[in-house]
Amino acid sequence: MTWLDTLVESFLILGDKPTHLSKLYPVAKKIRLENNLSIPKNFEETIQGNLEFNSSDSLLWKGKNDYFRNPNKGKGIWSLNPTMGFGYVEQREEARAIGIHNPWWIINKDEKFWFEVINIDSSKRHFSGEDKKKIKDTIGKRLFAPVFIAKTDVRKTDTERRNPNNTLVNFVKKGDVIFHYVSDQRAIVGYSVAKNDSYNDFGYWGSDDKRPAYKVDLKGLVKFQKLIKIENIKLKHKELIEYLDSNERPLYAPFGKSKNIINEGYLFKFPKEFIKVLNLEPRMKKNSYSSNNKTRKFISSRKRELKESNIQFEVLEEDLTTNIPQPKGNLPNNFTARKQMSYPEAELCSRFEEYLKKDGIKLSFLRIGKYVNDIFIKNKDIMIEAKASTSAPDIRMVIGQIKHYDYLLNKENRKPRYACALFPEKPSDDFMEIFSEQQIHVIWEEENGDFKSNLPIKILTSKVI
């Protein structure tokens, strides 16, 4: 229970009417004592601060939550915003009835984030015998959890038979954002959006028969090019725990104090503050729906350009857990070559193209025998190969591609002035040194969406340094 929760409940107990602070203080103190919550020495100042920070009637209003009213300033009389109390008690009691004792987020519409933990290899996550091997296909498509953890147990009440991390699925609303953590990869792989409110259904969950279940349909899966691995989360572990401690431990959070960091369970409430701590906002902007639309436009444009040169263009969807499948079969009629690119590489090229558009720079491609490169900037004579990660295999591959293309183009007296590798982040110092030794320049994307490089100044654009 947060301070805001304490205040809302106090007003409701007092009849949801204008109340003087002298009557509010003892009720709020009683609520906190009954819930084993802290009572600081500056208790009354804390109450006043939370009222003023969350009221547009106050000069101290933070401009965000508008929960309380104080029309007659200086008289110490406060009340709930008339729209605040509506449905709160009903929602809270509904939550408590099914085992969620602190639904702290229901009074704040901004707290719309969730954290799904999926173990692809777990026998408890299959929905039917034949569907077990396709669990990874459900990432970003639906949330699903059983209502009860056991089919029948006369010794337990319905509440005792529930798992809170499964029950939380019942509280997901249309438009909420769900981050997806895949245990097998030990990383947050992306996020999606709830297509509808949670609904009741039936499904398989580690059993041979159907059981009552909570479900939510999802849409708009955005896969992070650079996964947020457990190592990245560990670097922010102290800040995450400090936030939970200082905010009276919002329950059902995905991170704990143990060395494993990720708590056991299926669905967790993800406090909005965690987005700031983990620096997720730039990634979400970079991988936004508008970004996806621009990627599709880039793919369509490149497909048309290559088709005019009798080249088939294929973008391969990179699976979250496996390598990119290699297409088979002969080329269709009228095509003389095939150009392949993974979807994450197409996303990166699309963002790079958008960045250069401001300087009027247009991207093209080079036909190199039966091969086609990723990007060619004709008026700058720059050949670029893109890779979706700075992993050792990708870096070794791009070096080999560039050296191979350089060799073939040199035989035809078409060797470009500059050869570059494009990445979503800067490679390590060791790899940067290897690129330098191979006379390959590097272009990389910054967290803010800008691109930098080690090309000579202003060779590419005045913005890329």
Please, could you describe this protein's structure?
By secondary structure, the protein is an alpha+beta fold. The chain has three domains: 3-86, Arc Repressor Mutant, subunit A; 108-279, ph1033 like fold; 289-453, Trna Endonuclease, Chain: A, domain 1 (3-Layer(aba) Sandwich), CATH 3.40.1350.10. Helix content is 31%, strand content 21%. The strands form five sheets. Strands 4, 5, 6, 7, 8, 9 and 10 form a seven-stranded mixed β-sheet that branches. The protein has a five-stranded mixed β-sheet with strand order 15-16-17-18-19, sandwiched between helices. The longest helix has 20 residues, at 289-308. The chain is elongated. Residues 125-129 and 318-326 have low confidence and may be disordered.
Kindly summarize this structure in a few lines.
The chain has 465 residues and is of the alpha+beta class.
Fold topology:
Elements (H helix, E strand, L loop, with lengths): L2 H11 L5 E2 H14 L8 H11 L14 E2 L7 E4 L7 H10 L15 E6 L23 E5 L17 H4 L9 E6 L4 E8 L4 E5 L7 E19 H6 L1 H10 L20 E3 L2 H6 L3 H6 L2 H20 L2 E6 L20 E6 H15 L9 E2 L2 E2 L2 E3 L4 E5 L5 H20 L6 E6 L5 H9 L3 E5 L5 E3 L12
Parallel strand pairs: 4-6, 11-12, 16-17, 17-18
Antiparallel strand pairs: 1-3, 2-3, 4-10, 5-9, 6-7, 7-9, 8-9, 13-14, 15-16, 18-19
What is the radius of gyration?
Answer: 28 Å
Average of per-residue pLDDT values: 82
Q: Would you give the CATH topology of the largest domain?
A: ph1033 like fold
The best one-word shape is elongated
Topology, number of strands: 19
When the domains are counted, the total is: 3
- Name the CATH architecture of the largest domain: Roll
The stretches of 5 or more residues where confidence is low (pLDDT under 50) are 125-129, 318-326
Question: What is the helix fraction of residues, given as a range?
Answer: 25-40%
How can the largest sheet be summarized?
7 strands, mixed
Alpha plus pi helix count: 13
Q: Tell me the quaternary state.
A: single chain
Distance between the termini: 50 Å
Q: Assign the CATH class of the largest domain.
A: Alpha Beta
Q: Specify the structural class.
A: alpha+beta
Give the strand content: 15-25%
